[in-house]
């Protein structure tokens, strides 16, 4: 490599090639670990749907829908899809990163690839988002087939597409934030302090607008990004049930996506450079 | 802009610059005021093996960190193969291969895949990356490990794989940070042989080490570093000649070694004496000339001398001459 050309176009080409190769590497790792990927993706949604929409209704313990309309299944399904994507974002980005930034430093070779550090972080978000979308595709047939009662779904395609684009990016960027700010020792705490509250209080088991009687909780969980993902799915799949105004959902998802991406890339740079 | 890939602003290139690595007053002061590197001037020539020699904490790793875009300098400049590493880090990364101090192999990938994907990161097509990976695995005697996980490799193999990975994209400069620390002597020699072979093919290599034997054996020129500064720079032989460094007389003995050491230290012309269970080492500027005097002093000692060996000045003695301290911890 004696005659190297330093023009911006060749640098951009090299950066684009490296970005693509990083995606190929992540795809290779997912393909290699497809069994584990499937189990980690399916287990929680399957259990949720199985217990709440099959077991409980079958033994006459259904929570019921709202105002005599529909069943709990229709409330839960958008929430389960939202959880599947959010958890995948964390599994795909945060957990590997905590390890890669830990004592193994195995992120090193990718950081030394010929592209800016922010682009390496962006690749993490893109790869994680791809896995989130895959998780949604795997979980969708489960939530369609397992429930004892048929779903009352009225798909709004534009809304569904918007949610399926934004939710995986938001979840994956949140994974990047957690992965760059959480120390390896604190991973068990991350589950107790962040992931459990976020999933339980993410408007997953109830529509947000029905929380009027617990006003403080209704306001408090506005800080939880999962609320907007769940409400987005609710609007896109079961618009007959109460949901937030779609403009508010969209605005909040965009804001959270931008905020977590910025924070995550900043955290990544701070871990890589000194 | 049709192909909008990641890019950074156009930075001034240095077309007239013929050295592989140039730094001017390169400095890194961490928050709190600690100056890890303090005004380092370096010029590594193309095709050269250049060593940064110094004890732990001398600033060697920070210097390499700045040259490899990972540590942002607080002062001065650094240019690698014509690319300013601060202004254009992504382009600088194209010019370099890096072997860090710790095992940073990608544990999610096999041995072969570590090389293959590295080639892809650096813009090779699938066929070219495959071929380069095969070639380097052969050359680094790792071919039979190709399909294995990286955590099945011994320390020496893992280090060879990291060097192979760093060389895969044919970088202008190969950086190695303490490449043989923690390796057994056999693996160390195997790695030295590989580095010699790549050097013979024209590879520019910049390494850090705190082993003076490594600097002496491997490097054409050495910069002796301490406390963030370069104290001396030149070929090992010149350094040893120039700083009036001491040669060593190693006196093997049995019995009262402290008594022997005390007597030897009193001989005129002796600089420094140290001792362990089996020998007394006498450092002196003209060690061989002092032999008769040393032997007669030893004759009156309560220790029994069993052997005497004279060695030429080493880089260790250069370091002692420059700092008054020993290189080893």
Blueprint of the fold:
The complex is a heterodimer of chains A (274) and B (329).
Chain A: H1 8-32, H2 34-58, H3 72-100, H4 108-111, H5 117-145, H6 157-181, H7 187-200, H8 215-220, H9 225-237, H10 246-272
Helix pairs in contact in A: 1-5, 2-3, 2-5, 3-5, 3-6, 3-9, 5-6, 5-10, 6-9, 6-10, 9-10
Chain B: E1 21-29, E2 35-44, E3 49-53, H1 60-67, E4 75-80, E5 83-84, H2 89-95, E6 96-99, H3 111-121, H4 126-139, H5 155-167, E7 173-177, H6 185-200, E8 204-209, H7 212-218, E9 221-226, E10 229-234, H8 236-242, E11 247-255, H9 257-265, E12 270-275, E13 279-284, H10 291-299, E14 303-311, H11 315-323
Parallel strand pairs in B: 3-8, 3-9, 6-7, 7-8
Antiparallel strand pairs in B: 1-2, 1-4, 4-5, 9-10, 11-13, 11-14, 12-13
Index terms:
heterodimer, A: 274 residues, mainly alpha, elongated, B: 329 residues, 6-stranded mixed β-sheet, 4-stranded antiparallel β-sheet, 14 strands, 27% strand
Structure notes:
With 274 residues, chain A is mainly α. Chain A is 72% helix and 0% strand. Chain A contains ten helices and no strands. The longest helix of chain A is centred in the first third of the chain and has 29 residues, at 72-100. Residues 1-5 of chain A have low confidence and may be disordered. In chain B, 33% of the residues lie in helices and 27% in strands. In chain B, the strands form three sheets. Chain B has a six-stranded mixed beta sheet with strand order 6-7-8-3-9-10, sandwiched between helices. In chain B, a hairpin with a 3-residue loop joins strand 12 and strand 13. Chain B is globular, with a radius of gyration of 23 Å. Residues 1-5 and 7-16 of chain B have low confidence and may be disordered. Classes of the chains: A mainly alpha (274), B alpha/beta (329). At the A-B interface, helix 1, helix 4 and helix 5 of A face helix 2 and helix 3 of B.
């Amino acid at each position: 490599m004696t005659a190297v050309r330093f023009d911006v176009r060749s640098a951009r080409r090299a950066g684009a090639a490296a970005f693509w190769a990083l995606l190929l590497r992540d795809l290779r790792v997912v393909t290699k670990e497809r069994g584990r990927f499937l189990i980690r993706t399916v287990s929680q949604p399957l259990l949720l749907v199985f217990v709440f929409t099959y077991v409980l209704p079958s033994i006459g313990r259904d929570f019921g829908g709202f105002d005599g309309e529909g069943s709990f299944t229709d409330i839960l399904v958008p929430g389960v899809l939202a959880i599947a994507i959010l958890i995948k974002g964390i599994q795909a980005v945060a957990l590997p990163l905590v390890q890669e930034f830990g004592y193994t430093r195995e992120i090193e070779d990718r950081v030394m690839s010929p592209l800016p550090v922010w682009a390496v972080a962006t690749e993490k978000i893109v790869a994680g988002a791809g896995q989130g979308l895959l998780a949604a595709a795997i979980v969708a047939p489960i939530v369609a087939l397992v429930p004892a009662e048929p779903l009352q779904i009225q798909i709004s395609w534009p809304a569904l597409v918007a949610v399926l684009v934004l939710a995986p990016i938001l979840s994956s960027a949140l994974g990047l934030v957690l992965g760059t700010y959480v120390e390896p020792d604190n991973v068990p705490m991350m589950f107790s302090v962040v992931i459990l509250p976020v999933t339980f209080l993410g408007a997953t088991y109830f529509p947000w607008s029905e929380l009027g009687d617990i006003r403080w909780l209704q306001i408090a969980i506005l800080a939880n990004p999962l609320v907007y993902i769940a409400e987005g799915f609710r609007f896109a799949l079961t618009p007959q049930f109460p949901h937030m105004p779609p403009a508010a959902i969209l605005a909040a998802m965009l804001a959270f996506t931008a905020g977590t991406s910025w924070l995550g890339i900043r955290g990544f740079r701070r871990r890589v450079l000194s | 802009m049709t192909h909008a890939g990641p890019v950074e602003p156009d930075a001034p290139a240095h077309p007239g610059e013929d050295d592989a690595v140039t730094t001017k007053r390169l400095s890194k002061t961490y928050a709190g005021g600690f100056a890890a590197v303090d005004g380092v001037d370096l010029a590594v020539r193309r095709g050269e093996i250049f060593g940064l020699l110094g004890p732990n904490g001398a600033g060697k790793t920070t210097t390499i960190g700045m040259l490899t875009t990972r540590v942002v300098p607080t002062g001065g400049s650094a240019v690698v193969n014509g690319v300013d590493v601060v202004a254009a880090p992504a382009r600088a990364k194209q010019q370099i291969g890096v072997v860090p101090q710790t095992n940073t192999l990608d544990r999610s990938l096999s041995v072969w895949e570590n090389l293959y994907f590295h080639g892809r990161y650096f813009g090779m097509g699938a066929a070219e990356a495959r071929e380069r990976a095969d070639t380097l695995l052969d050359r680094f005697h790792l071919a039979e490990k190709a399909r294995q996980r990286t955590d099945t490799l011994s320390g020496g193999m893992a280090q060879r794989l990291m060097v192979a990975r760093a060389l895969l994209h044919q970088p202008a400069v190969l950086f190695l940070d303490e490449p043989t620390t923690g390796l057994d002597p056999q693996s160390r020699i195997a790695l030295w042989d590989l580095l010699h072979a790549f050097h013979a093919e024209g590879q520019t290599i910049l390494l850090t080490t705190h082993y003076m034997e490594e600097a002496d054996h491997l490097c054409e020129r050495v910069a002796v570093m301490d406390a963030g500064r370069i104290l001396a720079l030149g070929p090992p032989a010149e350094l040893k000649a120039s700083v009036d460094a001491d040669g060593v007389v190693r006196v093997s003995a049995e019995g009262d070694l402290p008594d022997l050491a005390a007597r030897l230290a009193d001989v005129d012309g002796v600089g420094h004496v140290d001792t362990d269970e089996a020998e007394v080492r006498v450092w002196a500027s003209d060690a061989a000339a002092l032999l008769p005097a040393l032997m007669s002093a030893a004759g009156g000692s309560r220790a029994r001398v069993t052997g005497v060996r004279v060695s030429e000045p080493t880089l260790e003695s250069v370091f002692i001459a420059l700092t008054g301290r020993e290189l080893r911890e």
